[in-house]
Amino acid sequence: MTGVLAGRSALVTGASRGIGRGIALGLAAAGADVAVNWYRPPSPEFGRDNGADVASVVAEIEAMGRRAVAVEADVSNGAAVRAMVDEVVLSLGGLDVLVNSAGICPFHDFLTMPEELWDRVHAVNLRGAFLCSQAAARVMVDQGRGGRIISVSSISALVGGGQQAHYTPTKAGVHSLMQSIAIPLGPHGITCNSVLPGAIGTDINRDDWSDPQKLAYLNGRIPIGRLGEPDDVAGPVVFLASPAARYVTGAALLVDGGLYVNLQ
Ligand SMILES: NC(=O)C1=CN([C@@H]2O[C@H](COP(=O)(O)OP(=O)(O)OC[C@H]3O[C@@H](n4cnc5c(N)ncnc54)[C@H](O)[C@@H]3O)[C@@H](O)[C@H]2O)C=CC1
Ligand SMILES: C[C@H](O)[C@@H]1OC(=O)[C@H](O)[C@@H]1O
């Protein structure tokens, strides 16, 4: 889909690594200029510092001949999100595509789960998608040239996880958010959709997949025959961002190699 996004400006949250990084590179390969959101956690318990990672993503995008800008913000902080979107508009001259990819999943037992952990996972995954979507939509409406909002939900919007009682509701919520905002934004030519990745190899599941039995189980359930990679998610996101998807809104696209349908 080279060139289908030429002249468009995109913002990808959580783009310093993992799926967000893959999406940022995919959008740039399709012709978009890209703002790469990253986050510096207040302490290591909130995740690792992404300063070095984001510099390499910016460099890779610039090497493709596109403009790239790194924008730091905690997506759960409304003031920081609105300042980030203002900075993107100033740097790239507008905003046509938002991809909400920032997310966390600190695996935890249900019976001992602290309220604070529940709140943080919701703040980053769901409140963050709301804040970024609202700030971006305001810009898109003012610009008057339509737009695309795409959120990285999950197969976890459809199925449970024994260590994910805090996480799976946020992923169902993110998809529901896209459905609801598709209604007021449709008349402005702004489409709102979600992608639902299955099991994609990134930092978020590195510890969980260090159990060889779990890894073998997951591999065995995927009809396509392998775990996913960030680039597997980028293609469907580029499609949803492209003119070819102009009549797709409020939709959810499973990107899971068939994991969901393979019960037996
Ligand atoms: N890896 C997988 O199997 C799947 C992942 N997902 C979703 O994909 C998205 C990306 O996750 P991965 O790339 O897998 O994990 P990852 O851990 O590699 O990336 C997460 C990104 O979110 C950023 N982030 C975390 N907290 C943030 C905050 N408060 N503000 C801004 N950015 C923040 C991190 O800095 C990082 O760049 C998440 O929303 C996750 O829920 C969905 C389905 C499957
Ligand atoms: C973090 C998990 O391994 C991963 O995240 C998801 O959303 C998938 O459902 C997997 O559970």
Helix percentage range: 40-55%
Radius of gyration: 17 Å
Q: Kindly give the count of domains.
A: 1
Low-pLDDT parts are none
The profile of the biggest β sheet is: 7 strands, parallel
The geometry reads as globular
Number of helices: 7
* Number of beta-strand segments: 7
CATH superfamily: NAD(P)-binding Rossmann-like Domain
Q: Give me the CATH architecture, please.
A: 3-Layer(aba) Sandwich
Strand arrangement across the biggest beta sheet: 3-2-1-4-5-6-7
Quote the beta fraction: 5-15%
Mean pLDDT across residues = 96
CA(first)-CA(last) distance: 35 Å
Bound ligand species: 1,4-dihydronicotinamide adenine dinucleotide, ligand LFPNKLMZ
For this structure, what is the CATH class? Alpha Beta
Catalytic activity: L-rhamnofuranose + NADP(+) = L-rhamnono-1,4-lactone + NADPH + H(+); L-rhamnofuranose + NAD(+) = L-rhamnono-1,4-lactone + NADH + H(+)
Pathway: Carbohydrate degradation; L-rhamnose degradation
Protein name: L-rhamnose 1-dehydrogenase (NAD(P)(+))
EC number: 1.1.1.378
Which features would summarize this protein structure in a list?
seven-stranded parallel sheet, 7 helices, binds 1,4-dihydronicotinamide adenine dinucleotide, globular, 41% helix, Rossmann fold, alpha/beta, 264 residues, rhamnose metabolism, binds ligand LFPNKLMZ, SDR_fam, EC 1.1.1.378, 14% strand, NADP
Folded structure, characterized:
The structure is a single chain. The protein is α/β, with parallel strands linked by helices. It has a single domain, classed as Rossmann fold. Helices cover 41% and strands 14% of the residues. The protein contains seven helices and seven strands, in the order βαβαβαβαβαβααβ. The protein has helices at residues 18-29, 51-63, 78-92, 115-143, 168-185, 212-221, 230-241; strands spanning 9-12, 33-38, 68-72, 97-100, 147-152, 190-197, 252-255. The protein has a seven-stranded parallel beta sheet, sandwiched between helices. The longest helix is centred in the middle third of the chain and has 29 residues, at 115-143. The protein is globular, with a radius of gyration of 17 Å. 45% of the residues are buried. Bound molecules: 1,4-dihydronicotinamide adenine dinucleotide (NAI) and the ligand C[C@H](O)[C@@H]1OC(=O)[C@H](O)[C@@H]1O. 1,4-dihydronicotinamide adenine dinucleotide (NAI) is lined by residues 13-14, 16-20, 37, 39, 47, 50, 74-76, 101-105, 124, 152, 154, 197, 199-200, 202-205. GO terms for molecular function: oxidoreductase activity, acting on the CH-OH group of donors, NAD or NADP as acceptor; quinone binding. Its EC number is 1.1.1.378. InterPro entries: NAD(P)-bd_dom_sf, SDR_fam.
